Amino acid sequence: MITKTFEETFTYEALYRAHLRGRRCKRDKKPLIRFEMTMLSHLNELHLELMNGKYKVGRYHSFIVEEPKKREIQTLPYENRVVQHVICDDLLAPYFLRHTIVDNCACQEGKGAHFALNRFETKLKDYVRQYGRNGYFLKCDILKYFPSMPHELLAQTVCKHIQDEKIKKLVRDIIESYHAGQTFLDKYGIESLGKDGTKTGRGIPIGNQTSQVFGMFYLDKVDRLVKEKLRFKVYSRYMDDFVLLHQDLDYVKYALEEIRKVVKELGLYLNAKTQIFPIKNGVTYLGFRFIVTEDCKVVKVVKKQTKRRLRWRARLLKKAYIENLIPIERVKASQAAFHGHLTHARSYKFERELNAKLNFEDKGEITKDGKSRRQGVEPAQQGD
After folding, report:
1. Counting beta carbons within 10 angstroms of the beta carbon of residue 73, is it exposed (0 to 12), middle (13 to 18) or buried (19 or more)?
2. Which residues in the chain land under pLDDT 50?
3. Do 132 and 280 touch, CB atoms closer than 8 A?
4. Region at 132 (left for phi over 0; alpha for psi -120 to 50; beta for the rest)
5. What is the value of pTM for the model shown?
6. How far is 205 from 199, CA to CA, in rounded Å?
7. What pLDDT digit, counting tens, does each position of 114-146 carry?
């Protein structure tokens, strides 16, 4: 149980430390620059609003990101983000991280996508050594996890671990500050939970820090079911994407029905990508594909969709460089990022292909103005 009081949590010093954390890598952003011009006054006003019970969650600003897939992101004004840093970093995250299983890998210090991949690969190799290629994967995914999150059930799940009523109210206010649109829910066949017809009672904004903590912990009931009741040894979950493995097909089917029941109790739905397939088919998880060869070796490769995206980025970088839109340092930084991602899989040939596309500085590539990037002069005419 979280016993810390509202007044102990939202001190002026805590707000200042949250501001220092919140401004990292964002100090050139206009909202932050405006905030820091009168920082002490802003923090003092924010502290008074919290202590007087006048604090309100601001209006959301929405924008679209295209990679790795198209998503709508909602963000709050900077002052609200400072408050969320306090409630997440000093209160919710330290508590909930102590109450999750090790195979819940999202949004936790010391974990992440590569932690999940490495742990899953180790478990898979142990399984293959014992059972060979006999077994079945169950790959599950929640239908529109963040937009379909039910407000009332989420608030109950989080608030039952909190003692202070003021903190409970703040958590509920944050949850109720955003509602997914009715048209969006209808498109995916998700039932609205709104009582007055104007609010749907579902959805948490992807851009909120609290949403990451809520999303990480809300499926803890599924984790407990799989690990403690069904006793699966090979299991990994990263937010709403999870995969498990067992040698008995009938038991995997039984597990799917049990998971479906728990997911329904949580007010969510499994999407069409949820399926059972034999281990010899391999499995895709967090952007990588795990293949079990005929001689029972586990090979991790980059999935085809990721390869297409990286090839597209390489072409875009080359075009931007040739047209003098970016310096060579930007290209090399992207190459380093490609290497950092691909080094986690068997992808030497693919990385060599990307490097060949981007190692063009010494080739005297012709820029948009007809000059050579290498020489900075007009290219020689044939026969000169």
Report:
1. middle
2. 362, 366, 370, 374-384
3. no
4. left
5. 0.85
6. 15
7. 899 999 999 999 999 999 999 999 999 999 999
**Looking at residue 247, what DSSP letter applies?**
S
Can you give the pLDDT at residue 69? 75
Closest to 171 in 3D by CA, of 131, 209, 133 = 209
List the structure tokens of 187.
């498109």
Token pair belonging to 256: 């799917």
CA-wise closest residue to 283 among 301, 310, 307, 306: 301
Nearest to 347 by CA among 295, 311, 294: 311
Q: Which two tokens stand for residue 183?
A: 């048209």
d(CA 169, CA 164): 9
Interstrand relation of 241-246 and 283-285 (parallel, antiparallel or unpaired): unpaired
Q: State the pLDDT at residue 360.
A: 64
**SS3 for 62?**
strand
Alpha carbons 122 and 136: distance in angstroms, whole number: 17
> What is the reported pLDDT for 30?
83
Nearest to 266 by CA among 325, 310, 214, 339: 214
